[in-house]
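Model it.
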Amino acid sequence: MSSLIEDPGLAVVEHIFKEMKIDREWSTRQERGFTWWGKDFAQTVWAEPPFEDSGFRIARVHARTDVAAGFKGTPENLAKLSALNRFASLSALIVDGRESSEIRFAASMYVHEQTLPWVKRLFSIAVATQAVDAQIKGKVIAGMLGARPAVSGHPESGRRNDYDDMLNFVAAVVAPRGQRASLWQGEEVKEAVEQLQGPPCILATGDDRGAGLTAEFPFFERTSLLRATTEEAHPQLGTGILFRLSLPITDSKQDWPKGAHLLNTRELDSFTRAPFLGSWCAGDQAITFVSFYPNIAYQPGLLWNLITSMVIRARWVAEEASGDNWNESFERASRAKMEMMEALGEVFTKKGNKKTKGTPRRAR
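Modeled.
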């Protein structure tokens, strides 16, 4: 076990293999991971080699599941792919493969010894949900994208005829819990609003019920917007908490699907420190990262970790992906906010003076 703690990525991989009770007849092992067939679509789970970062021994774990082959990245197909990713939960549909002709579900997380317990649990949920989604939606998604389903079989056992019990995970475990009120709603959301006050957040607001929050972060002359809500259920998973991080990018709307695709690719190829559980997509008003955590993923204290990861993503996409300087942009945005508040104060003061000037006193 000590060797696995020294390599937290492998600890997560081994935990998932055992937790999902994967049948060796329908799986193959690699040096740092495994591939298995729940039925028609292969899923691979693996860990990158660990490395040192700020005094922590960190590893990145991945899960990818084959969905379609023969994909052509036309503007029309990228728009369809982006539309599908608007309903992302804990995985994204990405363009993958050497010739960028394959579609896979993808998810990843960073892990070190201190985060190992909750990463094991959350990534297990992400991996299982991903495998289910591929089996349920794979053939339909392939058809929508003008590709063919990426069905395959075990190199020795061949094509699988029966369904692995794990493919019942969403219907039997996740969805029933999603019929209840959101477990994420309440005091933790309200506490998060308080914790967000101050740098690097320019403005954070919430509601009295702890049903959601909004927060703004620097992005050149404007701000990116993080919204979290417990009041929008996922059509498949039920209740939980939905995150949206929207960018004030001025590109033409028709270019947003390609921009979202490039951000998915770049984030998976970069050291961001943020879990890739969700997807970039073209939203109604902006390029947006969407992530939905169902009730089954709830753990006390996890919400703040998820919010922190969205803050990290906001900084990464501003600085690394777009070339901004967060500190300078924060100072500009803070000054603009202060000037706006002062201007509003003067307006209300003038209105108040006009309202009271010459107004007769009311008889007592």
